[in-house]
What we know:
Keywords: Calcium, Disulfide bond, EGF-like domain, Membrane, Repeat, Signal, Transmembrane, Transmembrane helix. It comes from Nothobranchius kadleci. By secondary structure, this protein is an all-beta fold. The chain has strands at 5-9, 17-19, 26-28, 39-48, 57-65, 75-76, 80-86, 94-97, 100-101, 112-117, 124-126, 132-135, 146-154, 162-172, 180-181, 205-206. The strands form 6 sheets. Strands 7-14-13-10 form a 4-stranded mixed β-sheet, with no helix packed on it. A 3-stranded antiparallel β-sheet has the order 1-4-5, with no helix packed on it. The structure holds calcium ion (4 copies). Residues 87, 140-142, 176 line the site of one calcium ion.
Amino acid sequence: LNRTVVYSLADSHDALFSIDSVTGIVVLEKSLDRESRDSYCVRVQATDRVGQQGALSSQVDLTILVLDVNDNAPVFQRRDYSVTVPEDVAVGTEVLRVLATSDDIGPNAEITYNFRTGNELRKFTIDSKLGTISVTDDLDFEVCKDFYITVEAWDSGSPPLSTATMVIIQLMDVNDNAPVFDQDIYNVLISEDAPVGQTVTRVFAEDLDSQVNGRITYSILKGDRR
Ligand SMILES: [Ca+2]
Ligand SMILES: [Ca+2]
Ligand SMILES: [Ca+2]
Ligand SMILES: [Ca+2]
């Protein structure tokens, strides 16, 4: 019976692995997580004549490598992003960069970006690799003041996993509209015996800009002298 060999583990890594003492088959007993630990060295012992005098044993190291599975969706560094830019920002200007990462490795952590919704006017573009968002068309505060764009990050696993974040781009008003009178010419008839102080007419101008850029003051340039 000297040929009966009994197998055992010198180190089971907290019962993560077990070995069948007869067949020598090593079995996984708990779930693995490559993101926590990606390799184990298990020391296997073989003993003959267990419990008897003159028993001999030897040990061998078993290296176990844990392969990555795509089990971590991309995570954006921030829950949402916002930026304010002047409405006259030049086409091509980079306004914001988003960044997402995945705890996996290799293709399972290679991230690409795209717009899901919110860019129907095609005013912006996103670099699919870098996550940089740039202006692709003239902006106009008087037409649209803010953009709510949903950005997706996808990893390259199979199947790929994705996450979305909200990017808010707000425009700042620039004084790019002159006041406009509601008439090109005002014609007024006034009686020659009108009393001093009587209202002659009222002129009215509008300005499409906001706040101080749209506040109008009136003055007479010339023509009020005889
Ligand atoms: Ca993984
Ligand atoms: Ca992943
Ligand atoms: Ca404008
Ligand atoms: Ca403006």
